[in-house]
């Protein structure tokens, strides 16, 4: 088999291994998130808000690598569920601030079991988990920077 053919094999694609792993991990989250009444993207947004208590839509988008067009419908659903508030900034009306409601704050306690349960389901040791996390953070940083250099990393 020539080198070009080998390069084009699915099993040799880092992007596919990451994509498939992400989908499989997201499936593991499903039963936990259903109990919380959240989708996976909503869960990610809530994690940022549990950490920060409040942030702008732009700050949330930067943390999640999502644009406002993707975030707005997600945040509207979270607001309709009574978990977050969306308010225009008094200093700059172009800025929309997202905050947690009491119900949104309380959901954090229920969600606290999710990370440990997922680590147990994947049979990762704490050391393996930490090693993978650091490798993927490094990869994300490099890929994001490469996207910025080529003009394909704009997130709005």
TrEMBL record:
GO biological process: response to stress
GO annotations of cellular component type: cytoplasm
SMART domains the UniProt entry points to: HTH_MARR
Keywords of this entry: Cytoplasm, DNA-binding, Transcription, Transcription regulation
InterPro entries: HTH_MarR-typ (IPR000835), MarR/SlyA-like (IPR039422), Transc_reg_Sar_Rot_HTH (IPR055166), WH-like_DNA-bd_sf (IPR036388), WH_DNA-bd_sf (IPR036390)
Subcellular location: Cytoplasm
Superkingdom of origin organism: Bacteria
Chain ranges of the HTH marR-type domain: 11-145
GO MF entries: DNA binding; DNA-binding transcription factor activity
Any Pfam family hit: Staph_reg_Sar_Rot
Gene3D superfamilies given in the database record: Winged helix-like DNA-binding domain superfamily/Winged helix DNA-binding domain
Principal cellular location given in the protein's record: cytoplasm
Protein name per Swiss-Prot or TrEMBL: Putative transcriptional regulator
Organism expressing this protein natively: Paenibacillus mucilaginosus 3016
């Amino acid at each position: 088999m020539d080198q070009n053919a080998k390069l084009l094999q699915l099993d040799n694609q880092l992007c596919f291994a990451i994509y498939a792993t992400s989908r499989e991990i997201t499936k593991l989250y499903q039963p936990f998130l259903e109990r919380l009444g959240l989708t996976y993207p909503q869960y990610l947004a809530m994690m940022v808000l549990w950490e920060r208590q409040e942030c702008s839509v732009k700050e949330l988008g930067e943390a999640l690598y999502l644009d406002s067009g993707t975030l707005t419908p997600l945040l509207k659903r979270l607001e309709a569920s009574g978990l977050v508030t969306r308010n225009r900034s008094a200093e700059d009306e172009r800025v929309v601030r997202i905050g947690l409601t009491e119900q949104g704050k309380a959901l954090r306690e229920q969600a606290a079991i999710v990370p440990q349960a997922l680590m147990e389901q994947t049979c990762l040791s704490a050391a393996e988990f930490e090693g993978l996390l650091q490798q993927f953070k490094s990869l994300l940083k490099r890929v994001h920077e490469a996207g910025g250099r080529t003009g394909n990393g704009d997130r709005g």
